[in-house]
User: Fold these one by one.
Assistant:
Number 1:
Amino acid sequence: MTVRQPHPIEVRSYEILRSRVDLSPMPPLWRAVAERVIHATADLEYAVDLVTLEEFLVQGWAALRDGTPIVTDEGMVAAGISARETVCHAADPAAARMARAAGITRSAAAVRLSYSEVGPGAVWAVGSAPEALSEIVARRVSPALVIGVPVGFVGAREAKEALRASGLPQLSNVSEKGGSVVAAAAVNALLYYEADRP
């Protein structure tokens, strides 16, 4: 994992966050993820909107610690993950060609390309494309963890419900909100867990 020294602004932000919402009853990794998501969004509702199990987060954290690949659904999620390189085929011309040939979305094609590159055991982070999340579920990619928090009014909630029903190790949220910053913050929380442990 990445050892880091938080900036004083980040330290102060966490102090303010903790003065406004008490997440201390949460299991440690769930709390770390919830706090980082709230810190990144300034949205206290994520304290009750995120859905996961601690054992899922432990599995993802252990896989990241062991160097498993991180796959993202778009460049903005990849850009927000500051401690590790990621795999992202969203802008790959091959994804566009595959999407046209197979009659699927480019996001779904990017999942197929990514899976052919990384195989099972990766951590998948989806912040934008419900179609990517649906493809991950349909393909049964045998992930270490799926962080599925696509944002939007069309398909996002349904894709997250399908993820929760799939039995895959996952972190999602109940509402239509989410997005790249949430997905990246959740991954960063796991990457930085040693440094962020209370």
Number 2:
Amino acid sequence: MTFTFRPLDPLRDAELLHRWVTHPKAAFWMMQDAKLEDVERAYMEIAADEHQQALLGLQDGVPVFLMEYYDPRYRELVGLYEPLPGDVGMHFLTPATETPVHGFTRAVITAVMARLFEDPAVARVVVEPDVSNTAVHALNEAVGFVPEREIQKPEKMALLSFCTREQFLHATAVSV
């Protein structure tokens, strides 16, 4: 599977995102009760923030997943661990579908990680999924993440995990 990326447009993409983030499958995204305006506002805040960015992953020009990345020195993990130079935080969301494609989500996380490691300044990716999100833990491990410890975030108990460029390359045998 081949994916391309484009910056998310908070207004143009709000309806699509709203469908994705309010679906029961996206419960860990914690936007189940969000109104369209809430989604617009949340992504306008991300777009205006120099320390985070949201991208849409496209397949044949059609949006098929959401990717967010952030600087953990300023967002999400401030005070919860000691960031190293080259750390970048990441979230991704594959929307619910009536016709699942075997291996799709693994292809998505692999593409997301490859995109992050295209930047030579990125040395390590950090994630903080909900401790009960076992499906994403398995995906994270498949691309090289190593869990470090559980941390209490304001909105959830999270599993802090890290993946270096070398761990990713070893786990996926993808050249970046």
